[in-house]
Amino acid sequence: MLNAVYQLVRPRQFEIVFKDISLDKEHVLVKPSHLSICNADQRYYQGKRSEEILRSKLPMALIHEAIGNVIYDPTGTFKAGDKVVMIPNVPVERSDVRAENYLRSSLFRGSSMDGFMQEYIETVPDRLVAIPDTITNDLVAAFTEMVSVVYHALSRFDRTAHQERETIGVWGDGNMGYFTALLLKARFPRSKVIVFGVIESKLADFSFADDICLVSQIPKNLTVDHAFECVGGNAAGQVINQIIDHIAPEGTIGLLGVSEDPVPINTRMVLEKGLRLLGTSRSGREDFEGLVRLYSERSDVVEYLEKMVGGVVKVRSIADITNAFEMDIYKQMGKTIMEWS
Q1: Inter-axis angle of helices 175-187 and 285-297, to 10 degrees?
Q2: What is the 3-state secondary structure (H, E, C) of the chain?
Q3: In this predicted model, what pLDDT tens digit does every residue of 249-273 receive, in sequence order?
Q4: Which residues of 200-227 are buried (b: 16+ CB within 10 A; e: fewer)?
Q5: Which of 24, 190, 233, 251 has CB atoms 3.0–4.6 Å from 247's, for a disulfide?
């Protein structure tokens, strides 16, 4: 059968191509219903990656955050109509040492293969996680992938960081900072979570945090046991160095912000304090499963995530896709969701 794939062929230009899907006994067919735009998608759309990378990646269908409904499953894992979240990481080998999202051979939808902007998605059952009936907000479910990255980061933090966790700092008042602070309070309720940012009105949205603070007004004697950097970009170096100044010795710094260029950090103080810098990228199946369980058990987490739903665009044409991406550029915070019609 022919499948419509909506590819970015060059910055700000989408085109439709048709690719053949051969139905077999191993692959599940899913029809996407809700797609969430990520900053990584925007970097491709706006042409903010290097010319070399754009030439090597495009044309390519974007989007790695999505849910859909099962249309056909010859394996019997799912029933037709089941709602599922789709996992963009596609491992081609297994390792007893390294997680699937760190294997250099793994593919990733919307980066090294076509993403979810397609009429149908052909995938194996292992790349799908069922969404229980108790989770009814499809708009929140659409950006499960991004929140699963935070879930993965906190799982690694829990295995790595020492047990003195009285105060944890989160630097960043955007989407990633919001998700990180929220899941920290859900998974480590005894820890005091302080969010540090630059925009006071955005910090006001962190009502679940124990405290908020502008980065320009941090008391000199304030100390955190551990910290998460959720800023990235050109400001990452400055943020990491501020964390180094305020973190207690032998603390762990979780790095979640993405930067295109190398950033300078104060390695002398990293050595003096015996700090751990813990990098995190993407997520795997167990993170999706754990997050879906958390959603089912903690309705309050889902309610807080509802506040992060920004624009919602019904998509019936390529022009609608372009409108969604253009609108997403100018949002201050939150996620732009495409209802994939």
Answers
A1: 70
A2: CEEEEEEEEECCEEEEEEEECCCCCCCEEEEEEEEECCHHHHHHHCCCCCHHHHHHHCCEECCCEEEEEEEECCCCCCCCCCEEEECCEECCCCCCCCCHHHCCCCEEECCCECCCCECCEEECHHHEEECCCCCCCHHHHHCHHHHHHHHHHHHHHHHHCCCCCCEEEEECCCHHHHHHHHHHHHHCCCCEEEEEECCHHHHCCCCCCCEEEEHHHCCCCCCECEEEECCCHHHHHHHHHHHHHHECCCCEEEECCCCCCCCCCCHHHHHHHCCEEEECCCCCHHHHHHHHHHHHHCHHHHHHHHCCEEEEEEECCHHHHHHHHHHHHCCCCCEEEEEEC
A3: 999 999 999 988 899 999 999 999 9
A4: eebbebbebbeebbebeebeeeeebbbb
A5: 251
Residues of the chain with pLDDT under 50: none
pLDDT the model gives residue 332: 81
Q: What is the pLDDT of residue 22?
A: 86
- Residue 6 phi/psi, 5-degree rounding, is -100, 100
Indicate the fold that domain 148-279 takes in CATH. Rossmann fold (3.40.50)
Asked whether the beta carbons of 181 and 191 are under 8 A apart, the reply is no
pLDDT of residue 341: 87
pTM of the predicted structure, to 2 decimals:
0.95
Tens of pLDDT, residue by residue over 72-113, are 999 999 999 999 999 999 999 999 999 999 999 999 999 999
Residues ≥6 apart with Cβ < 8 Å to 77: 28, 125, 128
Domain ranges of the chain: 2-143+308-340, 148-279
Q: What is the pLDDT of residue 1?
A: 87
Instruction: Establish how many alpha carbons lie within 13 A of residue 3's alpha carbon, considering only the half-sphere containing its beta carbon.
Output: 20
Task: Please state whether beta strands 192-197 and 167-171 pair in parallel, antiparallel, or not at all (unpaired).
Answer: parallel
**Domain range 2-143+308-340, its CATH number among 3.20.20.10, 3.30.565.10, 3.90.180.10, 3.20.20.100:** 3.90.180.10
Which tokens is 244 given? 């180094």
